[in-house]
């Protein structure tokens, strides 16, 4: 097999073992409940689907059932925050879009300390199909002024991120996830809002990923290593504010970037990274994500393969970006030769 002739995907990590992000979130709320008495949880009649059933059982007097009325729930959260409590608003990501106006006005515009935590994002939703697979949430909430946007990579990071958003003073939107997720981060890993972290060093290209795509990016690096490529993998769990310094250093040191996200290619992580590069250090870039379409019913890994979000899809994007970089370098060399430099 020649350079960049990508083989079959490595064995599945996402969905094969481990805790789901939503369950890790719910259990972390319980762990924090005794220590921090100033937060409450709001639910839209789907606590079993968001992981907050753990908190409901442990702290029933701090759990508020708002029913299937997400816009009202978001407004209630703004009111609760106005008297000094910290509300966690929990529902499915698609239903967060239903309450986007209230998130904008009652939370962000009013500068309320509300934490919006959404399960069932992206193709990870699987069999529920395109109507339930939210591929627009990162873009929508990233565009709201003052809103922090986070997508943790594994259950361990979810635990840390949940405490971090509770400690943060301001509105936050955070994704969880439905499928079991393998733990991929080192025990010494420390989450920090606004900071990405290099999980694997490499000199030929950088893959910047978030959420379930981080594990797949690591798998892609394994595939590419067999072809002699040294791949850097970055976990960019905070999409907003993006870690500009890390993005620029990766572009300077590897000269090519691939982003990977379980989201539309427009408006999410890829767009955030591109906004940094176009201003501070332009370089060849490829976007791995759903290409402006709705999803369909299927198992998460089957959908990842079909829509190009699997490890092989990420590896193929790496090959494309390296070819583009090579072409640009050849063109620059030709121009320099013609100018006599």
Automatic annotation (TrEMBL):
Q: Which PANTHER family match?
A: PYRUVATE DEHYDROGENASE E1 COMPONENT, TRANSKETOLASE-LIKE PYRIMIDINE-BINDING DOMAIN-CONTAINING PROTEIN
Q: Which domain of life is it from?
A: Bacteria
Gene3D superfamilies named among the record's database cross-references: 3.40.50.920, 3.40.50.970
Q: Organism, per UniProt?
A: Candidatus Nitronereus thalassa
Any Pfam family hit: Transket_pyr
Residue span, Transketolase-like pyrimidine-binding domain: 19-184
Which lineage? Bacteria, Pseudomonadati, Nitrospirota, Nitrospiria, Nitrospirales
Record-given protein name: Transketolase family protein
Q: InterPro entries in the record, alphabetically?
A: PDH/Transketolase, THDP-binding, Transketo_C/PFOR_II, Transketolase-like_Pyr-bd, Transketolase_C
